[in-house]
Amino acid sequence: MTVLKTSLRNFVAHKGRMVLSAVAVLLSVAFVCGTLVFTDTMNTTFDKLFASTASDVTVSAKTDENAQQTGKAPTIPEATAARLEKLDGVEKAQADVFDERVTLVDDQGNNLSPDTGAPTIAGDWGAEEDSVMELVSGHAPRGPTEVIVDADTADRKKLEIGDAVKVISFRGTTEAEITGIAKFTATNPGAALVFFDRPTAQEKLLGSTDQVSQVLLTAADGVTDEQLKKDVIAELGGGFEVKTKDEAADSAADEVGGFLDFMKYALLGFAGISVLVGIFLIVNTFSMLVAQRTREIGLMRAIGASRKQVNRSVLTEALLLGLVGSLLGIGAGIGIAIALMELMGLVGMNLDTSDLTVKATTPLIGLVLGVVVTVVAAYLPARRAGKVSPMAALRDAGTPADGRAGRVRAVVGLVLTAIGGAGLVLAARADEAGEGAQFLSLGIVFSLIGFVVIGPLLAGVVVRAISVVVLRLFGPVGRMAERNALRNPRRTGATAAALMIGLALVAGLSVVGSSMVASAEEQLDKSVGADFIVGSDTGQLITPEAEQAVKDTPGLAHVTDYKVVSVELSTPDGKKTETGLAAADPTYAEDLRVETVAGELSAAYGEDALSVPEDFAKDHGIGLGDTVTADFVGGKPAELEVAAITTQDTSVDQGAMYVNIATVERYLPEGKMPANMIMFGKAEEGKADQAYTALKDSLKDYPQYKVRDQADYKETLRDQIGQLLNMVYGLLALAIIVAVLGVVNTLALSVVERTREIGLLRAIGLSRRQLRRMIRLESVVIALFGAGLGLGLGMAWGASTQQLLALEGLGVLDIPWPTIITVFFGSALVGLIAALVPAFRAGRMNVLNAIATE
To answer: Domain ABC3 transporter permease C-terminal, which positions (predicted)?
Structure first.
């Protein structure tokens, strides 16, 4: 009880000093809890949607994941519904029509489909839709030129009753007028929906009025979904896919589950970084508090307090700090989740706060995380406090073992750094990506830990070097700031380490991103001979109408089709491999200059010929002139001669196997031919600008496809990588904010620790302005020290990663010096901002009171 009272008294007495540490705990816990609440809410939203739209049993066409990508929606005979309605155990059989491969545009050609990756779904307005959606205005479609759109799309795109729209599918383009707007009774997580009447939907989406997409069955009373499924399979036999309500909902959830899991663990990863940075802040806080209470601890020991009691007193303070920070963090986490939901709403994914999901485990995880992290971080300072002898504490002698501990720390840090450096070197020199990735992970972890451990040793060297350039310009004030930063190298090292972690990741990712862009641009210049590339940013296949529009464009010397054909290859070593062949026109050999190690790529576009990549040839013992059997999915087998073996030393189409489209057409029926994934164009001599303009004009009615020349393509790469990096930097900002709080806390506690010294300095003539400048300069040099370590370490990580990625064709190392330099000098600004409050408080000290402080 005495220990608890002492801890409470100290906690309250130092509440001002604990605030920033509590904020670090709060932010870390809030990020973790916010991530969990946000992803759980998304799961709840999708689960409710899938559960509300799934029937007891769903019957659809059996699909093969290796089936040819024709772009057309799979169908089953409409008569299946009538047949199943007569089956015992079926209360109702409802045929349904839909296609998820459509694009919605207005009459001006503007894309109305979501730009978030969510699908646009066209279908028929029937009993099934009417049960999950509510018609809020207008009326249902009454003919081939009338449609309903969902309310979210109408709100987002400012659509009204009477507006003209076009629905583009692989069956053609349908012009219609909006006659109704419908709203989901459950939350719509971002898809755009458009509905025709049944006959129009069948004809325009499926190509036949006697076909449907699926049949939705309602089980009669007393019949389970599983039993009904068995009866349906017995009735229909093969060729159909039959799922219960739970299976259909699980299947739909699996399609989005990978994305949700990636988002969840990515956000938790960044939360973990902020937790790690927060640990340094807490260690520093308690180390300084223990140091400032050395005499107090000595008195406690002198009157009978044991080491365990002193240790327990410090840990109890940490426990209180962890509890307060965690509880506040849990509440803030819910706020972060709601903010993320609002942010997703701005980009088109509608998440309703009524679905906000806070599982019982989420607050528990936040509470345990905050408390454990705080107590663990405070353990070393607590242990150090307990080891101080009463007499040493009373005379402020400190811990006798400090010097020896510093030497041991330096040796351990050097060893860990050496191991990390060796790992990075081995990763850069690895011949296989898997082996290199293991060395890279080892190198990053050990070099980071090594730099953290060796930080105090580096402080003496790096801070002096920075001071020569920065602080010496400010005369005696600058030299005092330098001595203050070097007074306690362990404290300076720990404070800088918190900033170092975030900036190391920023620098490493910047190097990797910049190198990826530079490598891709080099490959484009080196390999791509086509003037124009036509394709979709969302992976949509090119419709026959759009394909014809490209081919009809004036000013093009040639147009190249590019498809991916699913096959099973039987190689001379007796093995079978399911893969995709890159089927293209012979002009593709001009559009993509692929280097070969044997043969010529143009030969692969001969009759019954193909090319294989170098690694595939080695793995299966294939040589030039050998024959492989290609069993085309949905077609006939073919004997193809290996006419070229391509190099792996590229990032464009690496590993592709090329075959002539004409060859594929001999073995695949017309209805099974895949649609174009992408198309290439070559302008007539001297007509590049005119052809570029004409090609864009040809596709103005198909906004889902982009026309790019090589300059456009490079710009797109830079934008995509830049957007990804900006998102990562935004997430890393939390860790950097926590690190800045660490600098503020260190300076604030340092000012308290040096109260008497500051009073003496003021007494002998140091002005308030000079005092504040001294503290600001001390903060700047600590920030620059952390930035220098972080940026240097990050560039080493990035360079090693790039060398590893060179195995995949990304062979250009590009250091983004403008970013690196901006971040370094930006760190000085961070140091100035962090010092504002401590410097202000120091300047307001009463000189006499400060001198009288013991």
So the answer is: 270-390, 731-846
Element (H, E) at 605: none
DSSP conformational letter for 528: B
More confident residue, 34 or 238: 34
pLDDT digits (tens, 9 = 90+) for 145-190: 999 999 989 988 899 999 999 999 999 999 999 999 998 877 777 7
pLDDT at 401: 43
| Identity at 18, one-letter amino acid code | M
Intra-chain end-to-end CA distance of the chain, in Å: 29
What does the block give as tokens for 532? 């124009």
Which parts of 237-360 fold into alpha helices (H)? Answer: 245-292, 294-302, 307-346
* Calpha distance 473→479 (Å, rounded): 9
Cα within 13 Å of Cα(759), Cβ side: 15
CA distances from 109 to 163, 622, 698, 785 (A): 13, 50, 12, 55
How many angstroms from the chain centroid is the CA of residue 138? Answer: 41
680: phi then psi, degrees, rounded to nearest 5: -125, 150
**H or E segment at 195?**
strand 192-196
Give me the count of residues in the chain. 854
Measured CA to CA, the distance from residue 807 to residue 800 in angstroms comes to 12
> Is pTM beyond 0.85 here?
no
How far is C-alpha 343 from the geometric centre of its chain's CA atoms? Answer: 16
Helix axes 817-843 and 489-527, enclosed angle (nearest 10):
160
Neighbouring C-alpha atoms within 13 Å toward the C-beta of 145: 4
Question: Which DSSP helix (H) or strand (E) runs through 800?
Answer: helix 768-805
Across 676-695, average pLDDT? 93
Taking Cα atoms as reference points, which of 837, 736, 728 lies closest to residue 786? Answer: 736
H helix and E strand count, the chain: 26, 24
Q: Where are the alpha helices (DSSP H) in 139-185?
A: 151-157
Q: Which residues contact 86 (CB under 8 A, 6 or more apart)?
A: none
- Residue carrying structure tokens 């990712």: 509
Q: Is the pLDDT of residue 619 over 50?
A: yes
Burial grade of 267 (CB within 10 A; 0-12, 13-18, 19 or more) = buried
Using CA atoms in the order 73, 79, 80, 82, what is the torsion angle rounded to 10 degrees? 140
pLDDT per residue over 306-346, tens digit each? 677 777 777 787 888 888 889 999 999 999 888 888 887 76
Q: Distance between CA 830 and CA 569 in Å, rounded? A: 59
